[in-house]
Amino acid sequence: MNNRTAIFLTLIAIIAAGSGTACKTNSANNSATPVTNTANTNTANTANTANTPVTGISLATPTEAYKTAYALRKKGDIEGLKKVMSKEVIDFMTDMGEADKKTLDDMFKEMVKDPQNPSDEVRNEKITGERATLEYLKKDGTWKVMDFEKEGNDWKLTLPKPDPSEKGPKQPD
Question: CA 94 to CA 116: how far, in whole Å?
Answer without folding.
Answer: 22
